[in-house]
Every structure is written in structure tokens, then in C-alpha cells.
Amino acid sequence: MRAFALVASAAVSIVLLSGPALAQQKTVKACEQEWRANKAANQAAGVTEKAYVAQCRSGAAPTTQAPATAPAPTPSVQRAPAAPPRSASPTSAPVTGPNEFTTEAQAKGALPRRGSGVG
């Protein structure tokens, strides 16, 4: 029984003490490479290479994000240009009321559609 307790406590001690040993610090060279990879963002945020490396080596997550700015515009689908606005000049089509149309095509387009031909 004592042997089991001794082995169990030894195993627990190894697990607890190995955590910091497994979490090794990054090398200065690795931290410098990270800073250079994000150089523009780091400079925009005012983070110097020396400060970044110090923070990186301490194990803390270095801040690499630029100050809050508007997000970059995303590419959008191009749309057809909008129709030019109608002018209110007297030369334009006469003003019509509800269910009054200036062309036959407009009138036909406003008619309700018939069913699928069942009847």
C-alpha cells in the first residue's frame, strides 16, 4: 500500500513539474522572425522589435495587431449601373395614375399571370 502511494505521488509530481519544462521559451531569432513577418502591423501599432522580442521571450502573447481601424474593403460583385433618374421636365412621359400606362408593354406587364394552363 505504501509503495503504491509513493509511486502515485511521484507520478503526480512529475506531471506537475514537467509542465513548465515542456513549455519552452522561444528563441530570440524565432521572435525576431515573427516580428519581421508582421513588421508593417507592428510598426503601425508602435511596437518596436526590441519590445516585441522581450514580450515574446517572456511567454506572453505579443501584441501584433494595429490599432482599431476600419476593416479593409472586401471585393464586391459588380452590379449593372443604375438607371438614370427621371427628370421632371415637361418633355417626359405624361404622369399617369394607378392602372394607367403609357405603353402597351407596361400594361401587359402589370396583368396578373394566368395559371399553368389547367382548366
Distance between the termini: 92 Å
Oligomer: single chain
Radius of gyration, Cα only, in angstroms?
Answer: 36 Å
Order of helices and strands: HHHHH
Instruction: Report strand %.
Output: under 5%
- Unreliable residue runs: none
Q: Given the C-alpha coordinates, what overall shape results?
A: elongated
Describe the main β-sheet briefly. none
Calculate the mean pLDDT score and round it: 73
What class do helices, strands and sheet pairing give? mainly alpha
Number of strands: 0
Number of helices: 5
Fraction of residues in helices? Answer: 40-55%
What does this structure look like?
The chain is mainly α and 119 residues long. The protein has a domain at 26-66. The chain contains five helices and no strands. It has helices spanning 2-22, 28-37, 39-44, 49-57, 104-110. Helix 2 (28-37) packs across helix 4 (49-57). The protein starts with a helix and ends in a 9-residue tail after the last helix.
Write the layout of secondary structure elements.
Blueprint: H1 2-22, H2 28-37, H3 39-44, H4 49-57, H5 104-110
